[in-house]
Amino acid sequence: MLLKPFSRASSSVLLRPTLTRSFVNTSFQEKDVRHQGDHYCQIPERGLIELEGPDTAKFLQGLITNHMPKISPGGDGFYTAFLTPPGRMLYDTFIYPVNSGVNFPHPKFMIDCPASNTSTFMRHLKRYILRSKVKARDCSEEYQLWHVWGHHETLDPALVKKERRLSDIGCTDPRMPGFGYRAVLKKEQAIEHILPTSGHFEPLDASEYTIRRMLYGIPEGVDDLWPEISLPLESNLDYMNGVDFRKGCYVGQELTIRTYHTGVVRKRIVPMFSAPSVQSVDRHQTFPSGLVPQTDIKLVEGATLMRLEHVKRCAEGEPVAFTVPGNESIRIRPFLPDWWEEQHGE
Fold it and tell me: Residues in domain GCVT N-terminal (predicted)?
């Protein structure tokens, strides 16, 4: 079922591709037969920016939510975000050391960012470089991004240690246990050359990457994480290992740290199922789109930013529906990903 997005200005609700109702009463992992086994595919809609210079690690440390000393010696990259000064999301990114085999010869890093905003992101970086010894360039046309996943015995964590890394540039995706490996390769380099020989890896279309991460409740890019609007903890940045709460000052830190220490996050992005028919739903449980403070919901790519009290109601079997422009009612069924409980006891 494919629903085109509505204008942000016209409604508090935004819908995009969702899942069929047959999924509702069964764990989505059990239904996700398409992605079982060993697979690889290209990662769509991402750009790459290379930063080089003796001040690069220090420069990035003051701009990102994660802690640069984790990757400054080289090796695996990590997941992080750049925030606005008031503390809202700007761009979700991965940052990778540019290794040369087992070595990390000089301070050079690659930022994996939303492709549609690469030029804007470059301008953002240059605003802060000033006199720092850092050079930035867009290298999106030279490289391509790949996603590799499979059985745990095939993609064992040992594969990504320095001596057995799948690719010189990349990382085990830290956003969810077992989600896979993220590899950056030169465009002329074949992905098949880095795949583990212990598995039988089959290629899938790039769109399957988006479908798979949505099934697991992993937001990515500006369609899911709205620049200057989304908040990092509501966007699950903490759950996806994208924030280090012990590091020092960085742009946008104050609101993020204050929210973390108060322990109050009332909304989070969760996976959901939807169906247009709500004949069995009591109209008293159908909220008009104009009541933004009551619903405050944005649905994107099979995931929704939703108040956790509504998620709890759905988990208890109470149906919830929302009205969108054109008087069409959408019945939704949000659920908490299994990996939340594994990692965070939700």
Answer: 47-150
Nearest CA among 240, 225, 264, 236 for reference residue 84: 225
Please give the CATH superfamily to which domain 39-215 belongs: Probable tRNA modification gtpase trme; domain 1 (3.30.1360.120)
- Distance set, CA 4 to CA 15, 73, 235 (Å): 7, 44, 22
Assess contact for 38 and 202: CB atoms under 8 A: yes
Q: How many whole angstroms separate alpha carbon 73 and alpha carbon 192?
A: 28
pLDDT tens readout for residues 236-295? 999 999 999 999 899 999 999 999 998 888 899 888 776 654 444 343 444 444 433 334
What is the edge-to-edge ordering of all strands in the sheet holding 46-52? 78-83, 89-97, 108-114, 46-52, 135-138
pLDDT, averaged in runs of 10, over the chain (346 residues): 30 34 42 80 97 96 97 93 97 93 81 95 95 95 95 55 69 92 94 81 93 90 94 95 94 93 88 59 41 40 74 72 64 78 59
Domain with CATH 3.30.1360.120 in the chain: 39-215
Model confidence, pTM? 0.81
- Chain centroid to Cα 147, Å, comes to 13
